[in-house]
Each structure stands twice: as structure tokens, then as C-alpha cells.
Amino acid sequence: MTTYDSDLLQVLNARGYVHQTTDAERLDALAARQTVPGYIGFDATAPSLHVGSLVQIMMLRRLQQTGHKPIVVMGGGTTKIGDPSGKDESRKMLTSADIDDNIAGIRKVFERLLTFGDGETDAVMVNNDEWLSELGYIELLRDVGPHFTVNRMLTFDSVKLRLDREQPLTFLEFNYMILQAYDFLELARRYDCRLQMGGSDQWGNIVNGMELGRRMEQRELFGLTTPLLTTADGSKMGKTASGAVWLNEEQLPSYDFWQYWRNVDDRDVGRFLRLFTDLPLDEVAKLESPEGNEINAAKSVLADEVTALVRGREAAQLARESAHATFAGGGMGEDLPTLMIPEEGMRIGAALTQLGFTASNGEAKRKLAEGAVKLHGDIITDPGFVIVLRDDKETRLSLGKKKHAIIRAG
């Protein structure tokens, strides 16, 4: 196992964040002797990030925990273009007002996980629209353009995959990698930023930025990427049959967020405890080697710790208590997702779909036919069944053993 002198690389390596580094030895030496400002960029395409972004946010947290300065770069400028990495088609164009609203929503989770301020290791959040929108087109072409060749840009996975699938790649999107590289240079100028981190799909973009800094201003910059994050069964992190696992409460109730972590594959528990919690590694080692039913206790610890970090300790406690009331006591926890239905009632399939338990009314019908749907503990198979609340002000709707909601009269 590689040994490092700096707390930064020791922690990142021991907890499983490191996939590639551009010059680990020199970065380690730099981090051992001085504060290193480092950044990760996040595009503002929605009012919340989802679980797939959490490993990047946690890397910024580790950066701060080990005595360095996190820079959160919100892509107010690059979101206007859209990152083609991993995309089969162009993103919907957002207005400046949409982007600003999304940034305001995204900031909430960073304020829980990072300490912002004016100190040497305090985090800062910046919007790359500040400098990208000020660039003149001719200026960019003249000063930055000569450092990029189309030959090399065509070899990037984000471009090759789109072209191989014969999906259109607009000239607008083709410029994304140039602007991301320019971000690194501008952050180096403004904050003496020395390090860019990101997922493994960003390796080429990160190297571009390093080389641009070296060619234009002889700056020594570094890059570090995390492994591609998938679950043990090979599926993409943060995606479920019901949709994305959002980090913000407004997009996903804390109960559902807690349940996502409680229901992870047994094989992922140790890895996720290292990546997504602050638990000491010796404690993680004990939790990831359980016997018998103890694995469920380890999953509950994972759910508690991640939910407490992202949503707050009170939200984690409420979610846990709701889960206990639902599964152990057969009751209805306060933190379950809630659906208000009209006085005349609602078809049960429509209720399942509105809650996100099923993706369509067709899927709801299949689940009903399979006997997977219960209303207040009774199996319902009739797709024409209408939920009507008269004497009872609320009831519980369940799909399988893991999805539960409270139905209330509107």
C-alpha cells in the first residue's frame, strides 16, 4: 500500500477516494508543507444535487478536514453550455434565472458539510459565470484557442462516445472542455488554486486545465480523480427505479433518503461507510465484518450517519423512528412520505404513481396483480380500487416491504 506524508493523501487514499493523480509524489509534498486550495465544479442543472455527487462533496470535506481550502465552483457559466460527458444528447437550455435559483438550492447541502468564511482553510463558493461571461469571443480564441488541438479534443471520451453513437454534438458543447480548462487557470490566478478533483470521467478535462496553466503561465497544477462510483450490482450510484436520490429535502423526503442507505447491498456497506461518513476507520472495519443479522445494524448506522451529515441529526432520528414504527410496530411514522387525496378519493394505481412508487399506471397495475400492494395492511389487487377516507383521516399505503407512505384526506 502506498504511503504518504500529507494528511490529505493519507485520508483520501485510506478511505477509497483515489483513482488517478497527475503527480502524487509532488502533490503529497506540497500538501505536507502548505495549505492547498482545491476545487470541484458542479453544474447547476437542477435545484438539488443527487447522491451521485456526494462523493465529490465529501472529497471537499476531506480537503477541509485535513487543513486545506475547498473551493466550490458553481457552473453558472458552463451550465449555459452543458457538459457532454456521459450524455447521449444535448441538455435543455436553462435561463440565467433558472440557473441562479438552482445554485441557491444546491448551496444548502454545502453549508451543512463545509465551513464557509474568510479564513485560510474556510470554504468559498464561486460562480464561474463571473469570469466566463466577461470573456470576449475573439480574446478567448486568440489567447486560449492555440493551446487546444481538434485532433486531441476528438479523442476525449465525452466526444468519442457521442460520435460513435451517431448522436449530434453541438459546437456549443464542444467548447465545454475549453471553458472548464480556463476555470482552472482563472481559479489559480484568483485563489492560488493548485488542485482540481473530480470523477474519473473528468480526467481529460482536468489534465487540459493543468496543461493550460503550464503553457500560459508556467503554473504547477495537480489533478486527482475518484473511481467510477457504482453499486455492487453494477448499477449507477444515486439512481433507483423511482428516480434520482436527491440530497435536498424539497426534492426527496428524509425518510426516503434514509431508506436508500438502509437498503444498500450488503457488499457496499464498508465502502460507503468510508466514503460517506466521518466514522473512524477502525470502527468501519468492525461494522463491515458482521455476522448474521448484524449487517442490518451496520446498514442502519450507515443510514443514520449519512442522513445526519446531509439532512441534520434530527432528520436522521425522525427517519429511523419512522422506519421502526413502520416495520417493527406496523404503525405510521411521522417522517413517511405523505400524499393528500381529494374527498372523493383516488384510484390506488394513481396514488402509487404520484408517490413515485411506480413509474407509470401500467407498472402500478402489474404490482397490484402481483399482490405487492397493501392498504392499511390489506392486500389490494383490483386496479379499479378507489382509496376513500371517511372516518379515518389517514391510512398507510405500501408497495412491497420497503416502500411506505401515509395517505391523508385533502
Automatic annotation (TrEMBL):
Motif 'KMSKS' region, residue numbers: 236-240
GO molecular function: ATP binding; protein homodimerization activity; RNA binding; tyrosine-tRNA ligase activity
Domain of life: Bacteria
Hydrolase listed as a keyword: no
Locus of motif 'HIGH' region: 44-53
Positions contributing to ATP binding: 239
GO biological process: tyrosyl-tRNA aminoacylation
Oligomeric form and interacting partners: Homodimer.
Family as reported in the entry's similarity comment: Belongs to the class-I aminoacyl-tRNA synthetase family. TyrS type 1 subfamily.
Protein name stated in the entry: Tyrosine--tRNA ligase
